[in-house]
Amino acid sequence: MDEGAPLGVATTRSMERVAAAVGLLREAPIEFEPVADVPLGGVLCALPALLGFGLLRHTRENFTLPPGFYPIETIFLVVAFLALARIRSLEALRYQAPGEWGKLLGLDRVPEVKTLREKLGILCADPERARAWSSTLARDWMEATPESAGTLYIDGHVWVYHGALTRLPRRYVSRERLCLRGTTDYWVNAMDGQPFFVVTRPVDDGLLSVLKEEIVPRLQTEVPGQAGAEELAADPLQHRFTIVFDREGYSPKFFAAMREKRIAVLTYHKFPGADWGLEEFSARTVRLVNAEEVTLQLAERGVRLSNGLWVREVRHRDARGHQSAILSTDYRSDLTRVAAAMFARWCQENFFKYMQQHYAIDRLVEYGIEPIPDSTRVVNPAWRSLDSQVRSQQSMLIREQARFGALQLPVEATAQETAAYETKKGQLLQSTESRQLKLAELKAQRKNAPKHVLLKDLPQEDRFTRLAAARKHLVDTIKLVAYRAETALVAIARESLSRQDDARALVRQLLASSVDLQPDLDAKTLNVRLHRLSTATHDAVLVHLCEELTATETLFPGSDLRLVFSPLGPV
After folding, report:
1. Which of 50, 126, 222, 364 is spaced 20 to 30 Å from 496 by Cα?
2. Rounded to the nearest 5°, which phi and psi values hold at 28?
3. Rounded distance between C-alpha atoms, residue 557 and residue 537, angstroms
4. What are the pLDDT digits (tens) for 393-438?
5. 211: Cβ–Cβ under 8 A, 6 or more apart, which residues?
């Protein structure tokens, strides 16, 4: 066991740790040593992009830590590196070699899980600081790519909770096709799937509510390049930006309110009606978000909604003859652009799937609960129960009506068959009529029951608290930066990769690879020598990546060492 064993496994800087413990050292200096074959060292390749996307840009402005061995930058780097290395939870750090991770950080070892949790707790003691930090990053990302902030995609993702700390309200989880207890995160992404920010709703009134109360007001202040008052007054068709969402947000009243704010909406028609005639469709070339050009059958009409608002309805007819109806209050863009913008929603769906699988966005980060203000409006459990019964009765009624319609008497039926037919028909008719009466009764009860009540008005057995979310919000924001950094590496890899779809898998392989570290204090460089990849083709891409990453001239945080990347051995 090494000399630092009394202070923990792999601790070799014992005097500095003792000095930090007694308040004589504010934070440990970053010092690298020559080492070989450090596992998962490929995560250092993401460091230039992590810093470029602002992982450490505003940390000292928004957060503080008391004097201790680990610098505040190290805590953020650890969480980001763990995410990139596909270590799915903070607890999983217990099963990693602490000294090997320390070598990648310029320290003797990585923080213990207990220490890491304590540091995150201090950083999130004031939840508003984490929210302010994520808001600043989102504003930076939008300003850096104002063209991508012009069309924003909003969708909810439920992370299911199976624990016993609190009985969260149930909500429908489409991927499970069940109503489960959980919390809804509403994500705001660019057209290509790149994330901007996330809003957590422990008490969820639905997409429309979060759009009106939180997301749209925030976008009005943060989206760059919006048309000014004079420009809007001079051009009645001009809008500030476009928001895209699914059928859950369908509301003519909301569309009109956004029209007043000069914000364009784009969504699917919830009540499209009959199919349009084939003569209305024509072949149009549509350029998708991935730059691929496809030929689609498109048609367009002006449609007046129930509140009198005129909108554009664009329809796409696929090879099977199915028609998808899209509504838009963007009155200026070509219909091919409207169609491309709507179909780009799959990028956000793919983002959710990827973040679940690779970044564990559904994992709890802290174990605890927080009270919810008594004035919070929640869905009335009595209304929810009646609504569930109405849906169940409607489903059974539809099945019985289908069976009633499908029951036919043979042309040359015998007397016995005729009697059986009449008996069966009568039973189904009686059951259908009884079901209709029951359904009408349940609908009347549901109509008389308030859909929303204040939390304080709920019976004690129906009250609930919310899961503590400050640390999860901070960790999720770091994961957003990590995902953006990974995507930046993917873009570089695609520049010299013939099979474009292989780029993300190649980058994952790179991040999981081992490295040799060679600091040169005279030249003030930290040479990161990457182990070879699986094929010669991928090694050629590795050379290109190393050249591009070295050209950034990135300094390792807390040091004056410039990162120099190179493959290990001849390529």
Report:
1. 50
2. -75, 140
3. 32
4. 888 888 888 888 888 877 777 888 788 888 888 888 888 888 899 9
5. 154, 243, 245, 249, 254
